[in-house]
Each structure stands twice: as C-alpha cells, then as structure tokens.
Amino acid sequence: MSYYDITQVAEETGLTAHTLRYYEKESLVPEVPRDSGGRRRYGDLHLRVLKFVNALRATGMPIREVKRYLVLYETGEQTFDERLELLKSHREIVKEQLSSVKANLRIIDLKIKSYEKIGAPK
Amino acid sequence: MSYYDITQVAEETGLTAHTLRYYEKESLVPEVPRDSGGRRRYGDLHLRVLKFVNALRATGMPIREVKRYLVLYETGEQTFDERLELLKSHREIVKEQLSSVKANLRIIDLKIKSYEKIGAPK
DNA sequence: CTATTTGTTAGAGTGCACTCTAAGTCAACT
DNA sequence: AGTTGACTTAGAGTGCACTCTAACAAATAG
Q1: Could you tell me the pTM of the whole model?
Q2: Contacts of strand C, CB cut-off 7 Å?
Q3: What's the rounded mean pLDDT across residues B92-121?
Q4: Residues A52 and B107: beta-carbon distance below 8 Å
Q5: Helix (H) or strand (E) holding A65
Q6: What is the pLDDT of residue A117?
Q7: CB contact under 8 A, B91 and A105
Q8: pLDDT score of A26 more than 90
Q9: Which residues have a Cβ under 8 Å from the Cβ of A32 and sit 6 or more positions away?
Q10: B83 vs A107: CB contact, 8 Å cut-off?
C-alpha cells in the first residue's frame, strides 16, 4: 500500500491541489487521513475513486450528484442498488446529450459545407 | 415576409424571452427592429440565425465566440474565410469532446456492469 | 539558522450563462 | 375609464465549479 501527497495526486488525476481540497470539502472523496504535520496522505483507494469521479465529471455529472454517489459509497453495501440506479440514470442522460451534440454538429457541418461550396451561405 | 414578436420567437427557438433580450444585448442576433411601441419585431432571418446560434451553443460554443461569429456575419462577405475557420475549429473541438465523453462513458459502463454482475464493485 | 518551498485553513473572488427584479409603457378587453 | 397582461429598460441576483487570497505552519536546502 502506497501513499501519495497532494502534489502527486494532482499529477496523477489531472486535478489541481486547489480542486482536490475543494472536492474533499464537498465530500467527493472518501476521508483523507493526515500525517503528523496535518498534511493529506492519499492512498490507492483515493486515487481510484478520484479517477472515477473524473469520469463522472467529464460526462457532465454535477458536483452534488457525484457527492450523492460518494455518500452512498461510504454508507456501505446496502446502497448497491441505489448506486446502480444513479449510474444507469446518468448513463441515459449522457447518451441523450451525445445524440443532441451529434445532431447539432451535423447542422454546423452543413453550414461549413455551404461555406466551402459556394463560398457564401444562404 | 413575416414578423414575429418575442413570445413567438421564444416558442420557435426554445429560448425564453429573457434569454432573447440577453442574446440581443450580447450581439448574438442581428439588429432587431422595433414597432411603433418599441417592441421587438423579429423576421425570418432572425429566426434562422437564432436556430443556428442554438446549434453552436448546444455544442458548447461560448457566448463570446458566437458573438464573434455574428460580428463577422454582420461585417459582410469579406469575412467568409474567417467564419469558415471559426466553424471548422469549433468542429474539431466538438469532435474531441465527443470522443472524450464516449471514453468516459465506457468507464462508467464498466462500473455499471461490475455492479450488475457481482452486485458489488471492486 | 535562515530562507524557500509546500503544505494548511476559512473564506472571498471569478467567469459563465443565464434569470430575475423594479419601474415603467402600451395595447386590448370589459 | 379601468384593469389586465405583455412588453420595455438597466441593472442586480443566482448557481455552478472552480480559483485564488491571506495568514500561518512545517519540512527541506544552503
């Protein structure tokens, strides 16, 4: 079992030290133990959770929803069903967003083609 | 040629009247003429532009960039090349975002599958 | 031993995109 | 003529997700 300081975790996760402290304050990470000097000592669990949090955030899950997931996670195995539902519902939202973006990208693509063809749009 | 009031345009575009006024203040629409009573009279051009603005916004283009596009549009045909570049560069950004979201969605999907299979994630 | 770096906290500030409020005007209905 | 409702403006407020500041403590480098 290895431990990491905030700078290492920042590098590993792509988050800033500031953001890591903010995520902790917002309960987006399991409790982070401190060393004798009061500094954060992250473990492998934290790293794994933070990477999953990144996946949730990168797909547009709001902070308060990520927090809800983490609270369920911390509560224990009796929350499996609820966590599963949360993730499945998020997945549907993301899928809808994806197809919306794709549809709008097609509109932009048509405009680009009209600029390229006639040099002027209608 | 038909004219529309702010309520009709709100319905057609899915934007609120508030947002339409805000977009106008931010120069995201060509100039909107007023009637004798000072009320907005939108034409077909406005409707078409607003729908395209919606496509740009729905794909994550920031307000200031949409505004830049509109200013070029208003400036005239000598800006065709610049508008084309702006749209093409936006298209690339959107494509990258799409693949990032898809990659992260796969991570979430794996987690869902692990919840479904063993009822418990590692 | 001193200076620098890296961390700590609570809390304030930032940027974005709306979203709403207040105070007022104007048209249409009763 | 009065009331309702939709509109007008400038500007303030909101929610989100950071991002930064100030003041301080501790570890390391010279």
Answers
A1: 0.91
A2: A 5-7, 17, 21, 25, 34, 38-40; B 16, 18-19, 21-22, 36-38, 57, 62-64
A3: 91
A4: yes
A5: helix A63-75
A6: 84
A7: yes
A8: yes
A9: A24, A40, A41, A42, A46
A10: no
